[in-house]
Amino acid sequence: MTKIESSKIKRLVRNVLTTRRNEIGCEECLAQMDTFVEMKLAGKDAGQAMPLVQDHLERCRDCHEEFRALLTVLQTISGE
Amino acid sequence: MTPRTNDEWLSALEEPGPARREALSDLRARLVRGLGYAMADRSDVTEAHIEGFVQNALLKILANLEYFRGDSRFTTWAQKIAVHEAFDELRRKRWENVSLDEMIEQYEGDFTPAVLDDPDPSPEQRVTQQGILETVRRLIDEELTERQRRAMIAVVLAGMPTAEVARRMDTNRNALYKLMHDARQRLKRRMEAEGISLEEALSAFEEERR
Questions:
Q1: The complex's ipTM?
Q2: By CA distance, what is B84's nearest residue in A?
């Protein structure tokens, strides 16, 4: 028998039940990530302006990791 | 470093010559500094790794200048490419000796809810969790194609990066995402038909959201 963390099942179920018809893939998300991050840094509602990017970032662990890293980099550099 | 507008970056980088060398040197320094911040909490990443990531990123940046749309600052676009390059390579290294079949095997067969790794669910929660897990497992078996099933198990349950699963399934990250999107749509229809609501499922697996 395989031990499955409940967090993974929860993630799977949430991911399935919140599926939308019009999602974007990783490449499209990456293509718009720089604009999305700049909007965040400018204090604008990036999720409202680019809902498909926001949705993808909530679903995709890898793109979310890159988004967080890019945000950190830009925040740190602008604060230098 | 001289501040440059997007147009100044592009015109400096497009033509070989001293302006290009200077711009490349400035960009390299900026990307190295940026990745240094991004990787600050990773003990497995050295300065030499960062130099390597930036070198590869610069090649990609130069090869893709025509695709820069000018919707953001040029340096943000370039930093995005460097971050992607670094994480892609780190994931590849981290997973290079892991076989997709072995990862999937771990999650096949009898993943019964009795072994859910929830430290202390209430008896009521446990019953609901068991019901949901049984349904999910059955629907994955009944509803998905073999490729969809393998992709969902590898990415969602085994936690493999999509790029790594895609590489092993002879496809790309985007096509894999589409395959999984289709799988989720199928599962969603069936779950809804079986009366599983988002609210019920989330409260059954109550915990901190990420």
A1: 0.93
A2: A66
